[in-house]
Amino acid sequence: MKPISPTDAWDLLTAASNPVPSDVVGAMSALGIEVLREVSGENSTEYLARCPAHLALTGKPDRRPSFSVNGATGLAHCFSCGYSGQFIDLVEDALGYDRVTACQWIVRRGVYRTSEETTPTLASADEKHAVTEASLALFVSPPREACDRRGITPEAARDLGVLWNEEKRRWILPIRDPFTGELWGWQEKGKRFFRNYPAGVHKGRTLFGDLNWSGHTALLLESPLDAARAHALGIPGAFASFGAHVSEAQMRLLKARCQQLVLGLDNDHAGRTSRDRLYARWRPRGLSMRFLDYGGTTAKDLGDMTDDAARSAFIGAYHPWRR
């Protein structure tokens, strides 16, 4: 990992936090959201209002408000259209700010508390402490024939930290903290074999790829091996979500790194469904998005394509409303 300057470190810490304004009603008003009703509970108050994202997500105004913001946690949710997020996400979406600016906007208004997302506990304390950089010494660089079968160059494997379990002939794909680069665990992948180590490692809070990268256009794929393939083809900003489900945290990481995102999830029902949901949810939040052009191919993913077809699919990425 490249050294992080004190300023960058502060920005990363700020961007990762979820501050809740001390005056939630006043902050909502400043965002143009009128509180229609307050519902007091045992530990907090819910503020009900018209959903600010309802029109963009459904094409219809919110005439039967089912949007609320929790005064203690800052969690916003619309039970009708599905829009949800922390209060900082609400500020980003309403004002078009990046995450650091949105955090500063809340802090200037006074902070009630910082609501951190709960990080799932790993399977056991022993496993948690066992995961260190030294753990990777058990593995080697992937052999040339394995790289060739996946269309991955040795240089791409090295750049992204891809390793190989020589004894079991399986890929080792590191899972790292997106801000510090600390090793959380890895995904082990072989023929008809798949395992995350340690059990319970929360890969949904990070991405696989060059975590130091930022630029204009990023590419989101499901498989880390496909991200390594894209990197080998010279496609910059290729990341993988470790599966068809892409979390809010992963999308925020992508939004902070690029101006435009090409959605290259698998060319199957699960991948297309996830792709369409991501577009509906994040395009209204100001993230320009295109779809990887699978065209008439029967390829399930970028890894099934020839080099030329994969590059063409990326270059030909299209806006969904043009198809």
TrEMBL record:
SUPFAM superfamilies: DNA primase core (SSF56731), Zinc beta-ribbon (SSF57783)
Annotated ranges, domain Toprim: 216-287
Keyword DNA-binding found: no
Alphabetized SMART domains for the sequence: TOPRIM, ZnF_CHCC
One GO cellular component term: DNA-directed RNA polymerase complex
GO biological process entries: DNA replication, synthesis of primer
InterPro entries, per database record: DNA_primase_Znf_CHC2, DnaG_primase, TOPRIM_DnaG/twinkle, TOPRIM_dom, Znf_CHC2
GO terms, molecular function: DNA binding; DNA-directed RNA polymerase activity; zinc ion binding
Annotated Zinc finger CHC2-type domain residues: 47-107
Keywords: DNA replication, DNA-directed RNA polymerase, Metal-binding, Nucleotidyltransferase, Primosome, Transcription, Transferase, Zinc, Zinc-finger
UniProt xrefs under Pfam families: Toprim_2, Zn_ribbon_DnaG
Protein name as annotated: DNA primase
